[in-house]
């Protein structure tokens, strides 16, 4: 397991907030959180291909692949963090009463640890109904297949 996954799991446990970590270059040109149609492809971490249930919440790319199912509870082998991963999307899902305070604190902690452990630059964005998206530009030549 990649040490970044260990960090994500530790921060998730410390704040009791689900955390998902996706390799941006392997996300097929973007991610949209939406309900599954049921024809998307999902690759388990064990290498078995499945299809999400219709109406299940997934993180889908334009190629019809689901990079996470049941929100971030089941992350996909398509975009799992690997040794050659250079850009990640960290998803924090919090809808409890104090989520507006807790999620930014978790993101700050994670950013501090990424800087301390890897010297990584980070950018955080809190999505809301008024601001439901953001863009990440991946360097040309990256693996999007």
What is the C-level CATH assignment?
Alpha Beta
Tell me the CATH superfamily: Phenylalanyl-trna Synthetase, Chain B, domain 3
**What is the N-to-C order of secondary-structure elements (H for helix, E for strand)?**
HEEEEEEEEH
What is the residue-mean pLDDT, rounded to a whole number?
89
CATH topology: Phenylalanyl-tRNA Synthetase, Chain B, domain 3
Shape: globular
Helix content: 10-25%
* Terminal Cα span: 22 Å
Count of distinct strands: 8
CATH-level-2 architecture:
3-Layer(bba) Sandwich
Query: Uncertain runs with pLDDT below 50, 5 residues or more?
Result: 140-145
Major sheet, described briefly? 6 strands, mixed
What's the number of helices? Answer: 2
Rg over alpha carbons: 15 Å
By secondary-structure content and strand pairing, the structural class works out as: alpha+beta
What is the domain total for the residues? 1
Strand percentage? 15-25%
Task: For this entry, give a set of tags.
145 residues, alpha+beta, six-stranded mixed beta sheet, two-stranded antiparallel ribbon, 21% strand, Phe-tRNA_synthase-like_B3/B4, RNA binding
